[in-house]
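Sharing a chain and its predicted structure for anyone who wants a worked example. Both blocks are below, sequence first, tokens second.
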Amino acid sequence: MKKLFLLLFIPVICFAQENQLKDFNRLLSSIKSGAEVRTIIHYSLAKLVIDGKTEQAPDAIGGMNLNTFEYFAIGSVRNDKAFVSASETVLISHPRYGYVLNYIKLRIYEDNTVEIIARYLDPKTYEIKMDEIFYGEINNGSNNGAVYLFLK
């Protein structure tokens, strides 16, 4: 019976993989190999800065796929740290602003820090209706990082 159990259990162990990417290096190797990555952002765990002042971050969660991204090695765009950049814009209906373009831009740095720019833009004039910057880090399972990365 023990042999049968082991024969049935070992394949499960071999194929069960953690799908959370817990650092920049895993993210970079995953996207370089063509893997699809999804981000889930827990904004309340990040530092929110509006007009240069730190504010209370909302208890909100957002997510986006890294479908289109760019990687910049150190010095490639006068940058001190390597980073992956991705953004997405979608039309939403907001209770305060009405229809707006919801623009989210991520910069995920080699030191596992993350900058998140969130803007609402008027869909006709592109006037900025809301502009927020969040600072956080990749969640590695042991920290309180705001940004979770997952293989799809």
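Comments welcome. DSSP finds two helices and eleven strands in the chain.
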